[in-house]
Amino acid sequence: MAHALTKAERRNLIAKGHSFIKLADITKSKAIVHPYVPLLSRAVEISSQMRVGVYDCIYVALAEQENCELVTADTRLIRSLPGFPIRDVASLP
Description:
This protein has 93 residues and is mostly helical. It folds into 2 domains: 1-31, no CATH class; 32-88, 5'-nuclease (Rossmann fold), CATH 3.40.50. The chain has helices at residues 2-10, 18-28, 40-50, 54-66, 75-80; strands spanning 70-72, 86-88. Strands 1-2 form a two-stranded parallel sheet. Helix 5 (75-80) links the parallel strand 1 (70-72) and strand 2 (86-88). The radius of gyration is 14 Å and the shape is globular.
């Protein structure tokens, strides 16, 4: 999340200094750590089908599993995976 927020800052999608504020809000929540191995099969399936890197697809597979959206500043990833549960970080309040 920190990478996505600072990338959004560099692209002027969020104001300079806001990544720190938003990250502080995120880290106050009780994060759940998920093992990646159970996600690999689905990630490889998405990667192979959509021609996107497995690393990114692990996050997409997790979003599917958790029935939520993946929030990212990676607009190329968003464009590469239409129909998948992905949201641009710039659209957040």
